[in-house]
Input
Amino acid sequence: MDEKEIKVLLIEDNPGDVRLIEDMLSDGANYRFELECAGKLLDGLVLLDRNDYDLVLLDLGLPDSQGLETFFSVYARAAHLPIVALTGIGDETLAVKAVQHGAQDYLVKGHVDSSSLQRALRYAIERKSAEQTLKEYRKKMARAELLASLGTLSATLAHELNQSLTVIGLSIENSLDELLEVSSPEPAMDYLRNSLSEVENAVAIVERFCSFSRKSSGTVFDQVSLQSVGERVVGLLNKSARHQKVIINLKELDKLPSIYVNQNDVEQLFFSLIQNATQASDGKKRSEINISGKVKDDNVELMFADTCGGIEKEKLEKIFEPFFTTKPSGQGTGLGLCIVQQLIAKYGGNIRAESKYGSGTTFYVTLPIHFNAERKGVGSESLKTEYIYS
Output
């Protein structure tokens, strides 16, 4: 059987203890321990930044740090790694506290042999792996609960809004019919026609919101021009964008092929990404949103690149989570990008976000040119979401 290599960072200032641990780890059965040592906390933290390890073996009493503060310093830098604390006979209480705060185990110097040391390190790695798996599962379940709650909310919202929107739409249609019988200013007729169109869009948005956590049925697919979609959405958002000193540029989308999609889906995608960037601008200096695209194999990749400020690193990986928003309280639902993610998943595409805080963000959206609407199994499990922070 091949030996499995385990890379261990030992942070220990006593040369005798270092040699003893090296000897005890020198002949592992089915495991080969690669040991790297640091005699001070600061040196250990530098090694953690430079190298990859499977485990940290940490003396809690070091020349430049003592007690729990030693553990907290390492844990803050390497919470993803299993940490096994080393302590003296009289400091077991301290070691237990380290375990309570996240260490995987502790060992008492002078009361451990080669077999128990190796076993403790292997078990610490296995426990940490199980802990990470459980954490990811809980996160996945929490997301599922949010989506289930959203489904319930969607049904209620649709029921409450659809009747009112239907009445508004019928009233506008009746008004248009009446005005056709008399001489009416054409601008007034255009205003009413535009209002009726937006009511129909509102109905479609409510339906998409309602379909958020269930499979859509009866969706109409057609060949859609990305240039036309871009021009329509930019026309709707230009006024609010200019108010924020944001210029929206469409760059040669007319050179891209039409794609087989539901037009409302693509409009929603453009609307959410443009509006999201516009709202991120501080409104004090001139910013831009440049929308371009290219053909990659059988896909179209759209780029929504803005100079509207960027997203902080710790927030970037959360932007597609339901109800998460970087906007101030009361200024966003946290659903826009989540719905974008669902729309892209519907077509088996993917989305990638790159951001530099203080500068701007770019979203890369890939959609198939020839989508098979009858294909089974396309859904959120097919979606690839990536984040890059520079």
Remarks:
- The CA atoms of residues 75 and 228 lie 52 Å apart.
